[in-house]
Model the fold of this input.
Amino acid sequence: MSTKVLEKIQIPILERREHQDLGLEIPYYDEEFDLPHLKPHRIAVTYLGYTFDMIAKKVGLEFISDQPVWYIHPATQEQKTFYPDAGFANYFETKELIASDLVLAAEVVSTSHKPKEKKDRKGMKKVNEYNYVPEFVLFYPNKDDDRVIEWYVNQGGAYQLQTDKQGIYQSNQIPELSIRILGQREWRDGMKVEVLFKGKSLIEYDKVLELVEIEKKKAEMEKERADKNEKTLRIYAQKLRELGIKPEEL
Done:
């Protein structure tokens, strides 16, 4: 066994803590880059969210989407929060999820913004690999991008890229879950794959578009509410300072 693998095996144990900062929990928006995602990303996230959630309920797992998860940072060894785009967990208290609860994590790659693409492809892959998340999947949603899926399985602390069988990827951890690559002529932005449960499709593309519009409006309302709350807190803090009260000491 290589030294590299031995080092990965000796990672610190994660401490289960309640997440105090749950973020906006909006899968259409990246807080770190202050970046709204484009429509192909939104469609893909909505589709994965709908299908993964259905499958999670059927197989007794918890579906997660852009929720905080505790990881050990590979470089600093600190316990830090990351937000997978989608995934399955075998622990149901989502306010205190840790990486070892995850069965599979997935990222929809934002190719229109290079720093975000690097974070999705390399950063999230590395942190999930280091924390022994069993399966990690990258989805490329733009129809003009020849890339479709990168499916990784953790073997001895290192991710191994899996190959499809006649255009179908089969999950090792969730036997009922498989994902089929659509024929290139069928590709539309955000829809280049078909999620299958026991070999059967779960939702049509047009229905996904309807869900996207619903989720987009919901996300905009959540963002507006979060911005309004932040503005209210700033005004309140300023009024306290005018009264000679330091809000940070309350």
Notes: The chain has a mean pLDDT of 84. The chain has four helices and 14 strands.
